[in-house]
Specification:
Elements (H helix, E strand, L loop, with lengths): L2 H9 L4 H16 L6 E4 L2 E4 L4 E2 L7 E2 L4 E2 L9 E2 L4 E2 L9 E2 L4 E2 L9 E2 L4 E2 L9 E2 L4 E2 L9 E2 L4 E2 L9 E2 L4 E2 L9 E2 L4 E2 L9 E2 L4 E2 L12 E2 L3 E5 L2 E2 L2 E8 L4 E9 L5 E9 L6 E4 L12 E3 L4 E8 L5 E11 L5 E10 L4 E2 L4 E5 L4 E8 L5 E2 L13 E4 L7 E2 L4 E8 L7 E3 L2 E6 L2 E7 L5 E8 L2 E8 L2 H6 L13 E8 L7 E9 L1
Parallel strand pairs: 25-32, 34-46
Antiparallel strand pairs: 1-2, 3-4, 5-6, 7-8, 9-10, 11-12, 13-14, 15-16, 17-18, 19-20, 21-22, 23-26, 24-25, 26-30, 27-29, 27-31, 28-30, 31-32, 33-35, 35-39, 36-38, 37-39, 40-41, 41-42, 42-43, 43-44, 45-46
Helix pairs in contact: 1-2
């Protein structure tokens, strides 16, 4: 029972005025029953809806701009955080700031535009970012900055514009923080240039940052040309170890002033594999110290003699008064060559030695490839050749193979001279001579000074089966022939072996 009720019962029992007072107190007690988050809806407590709040005074209120409430039954609203805003009352959420805008404070009804010189490239940003060096932004509310265009630069952060390059300078790239000085040999006579201008042919500006063609004066220039020369390099290609390949370089003064060459030197890693030939006649330079007038030229010889396998390189340096330094790269590749060695190229057979072997060795540094042995110059009867162990063989360095040569004639002592076949028996020479292309021969019997001719018919095949050979003199017992051993030896591509038989 409330205090008012107690007072009425104690002091005013039965009186109408007390009854009215009592009833009023009961109504007030019922109204005070709504809690925070609820409001009195004509005597009934109801829950606050999202976007509003009920502080507990029986009333409900909309969230103000800059505030929001996503839940029901709440006694207060939430403040929009930095990086967002609430533009309207009764909102249930805050809105993130768009790209190009930001908000550093809470409880705000809008976002701020990124000022010129700055940008915002994300949503919900709490600050704008200054444009980096090399970039700028001349507008507000932007999501990115602009690269300084070629011919200009930006050297500070937060810039609102790019600065054109001054005379004597240029910038070929965009987004740069400075401009480049016109190098020696060039000039820039305008602002905002993207490239420097070369001095006229035969002239040179000796200082960087020249602002006028008047800075270009007559000068000497060394120009080099040659068969193996390209873009500052003399490339000799592949060359065998121990061999030499040469070329000629032409030195020309392409300037408008005398060129003084004081030295020409070979240096670098494999300098000993390269040599300089200055010559003493013709158009050769003749010395490492000389003067070339404008338009004149002279030659120097260059030799490459690799001493080991693999890539070989050196430098050729010129000391002179041309404004441009001159260093040439010398290079080449080298491989070991195969070398064929046949210790015995003169084979002699006899009645006691009718067969022998010939050894083929590779004394080089690369594989020796043998061709078809005795194909171009075959070994004929009465000799035979077994080359099966070597023909077409690839022989490794330091390795070898062997072939067999035999005498297989039935009658010892036969020899051939032109179209005649001869044999000596007991101081008498017997011979057969081929007459034209007929299968007829004349039989000659010669003893001392007398010669007897007997005409008879004989088969050439039968004649050959009796013996034969080649290239010996009538009246001699020696039978000779030869054959070739081809290979990929770059020096001795084919070796000839002489074979002879003496009874």
């Amino acid at each position: 029972m409330s205090i008012r009720q107690q007072v009425c019962y104690n002091l005013c029992a039965g009186l109408l005025i007390c009854t009215f007072w009592l009833l009023t107190g009961i109504s007030e007690a019922n109204a005070a029953a709504c809690v925070a988050g609820e409001f009195d809806a004509t005597g009934t407590c109801e829950t606050c809806i999202p976007g509003s709040y009920c502080p507990g005074d029986d009333a409900t209120y909309e969230c103000a701009a800059g505030f929001y409430q996503p839940l029901s039954g709440q006694a207060s609203c939430l403040v929009s955080p930095p990086g967002s805003f609430v533009a309207f009352t009764g909102s249930i959420a805050s809105t993130p700031c768009d790209v190009g805008t930001f908000q550093a404070l809470s409880g705000q009804t809008s976002c701020d535009l990124a000022p010129a010189g700055k940008y915002v490239d994300t949503t919900g940003a709490i600050a704008a970012t200054s444009c980096a060096v090399g970039t700028f932004q001349n507008l507000s509310g932007q999501g990115s900055c602009i690269d300084a265009p070629a011919g200009s630069y930006v050297d500070v952060t937060g810039a609102t514009s790019a600065i054109p390059c001054a005379v004597g300078t240029f910038q070929a790239l965009s987004g740069q923080s400075s401009c480049d000085l016109a190098p020696a040999g060039k000039y820039v006579d305008t602002t905002g240039a993207i490239a420097a201008t070369s001095c006229p042919s035969g002239t040179w500006s000796y200082s960087a940052g020249s602002i006028s063609v008047s800075a270009c004066v007559d000068a000497p220039f060394l120009t080099i040309s040659g068969d193996f020369y390209s873009a500052g390099t003399v490339n000799f290609g592949n060359e065998l170890v121990g061999s030499t390949k040469g070329t000629t370089l032409t030195l020309t003064n392409s300037g408008l002033f005398d060129l003084n060459i004081t030295d020409i030197l070979i240096g670098g890693t494999n300098f000993s594999d390269f040599s300089l030939n200055l010559g003493a006649s013709g158009n050769f330079c003749g010395s490492t110290s000389l003067v070339l007038a404008p338009g004149n030229s002279c030659d120097v010889g260059m030799d490459f003699s690799p001493s080991a396998m693999g890539y070989r390189t050196a430098t050729l340096d010129f000391s002179h008064d041309s404004p441009l330094p001159t260093q040439i790269i010398l290079d080449g590749d080298s491989t070991y060559a195969p070398v064929i060695e046949v210790p015995s190229t003169n084979v002699v057979l006899s009645n006691t030695v009718t067969s022998t072997t010939v050894t083929i060795r590779n004394t080089g540094g690369d594989n020796l490839l043998l061709g078809d042995i005795a194909l171009a110059n075959p070994l004929e009867y009465p000799f035979s050749l077994d080359s099966s162990a070597c023909t077409g063989l690839s022989i490794n360095p330091s390795a070898s193979c062997s072939l067999t040569i035999s005498y297989v004639g039935d009658l010892a002592g036969w020899s051939k001279s032109n179209n005649a076949y001869w044999v000596t028996l007991r101081e008498t020479q017997y011979g057969f001579m081929l007459i034209g292309t007929l299968l007829t021969t004349g039989l000659f019997i010669r003893r001392k000074k007398y010669l007897l001719l007997i005409v008879m018919v004989v088969s050439i095949a039968s004649l050959n089966s009796c013996g034969g050979g080649s290239d010996s003199n009538p009246g001699s017992d020696l039978v000779t022939d030869s054959f070739d051993i081809p290979s990929n030896d770059p020096v001795n591509g084919s070796v000839t072996v002489l074979v002879s038989y003496r009874p």
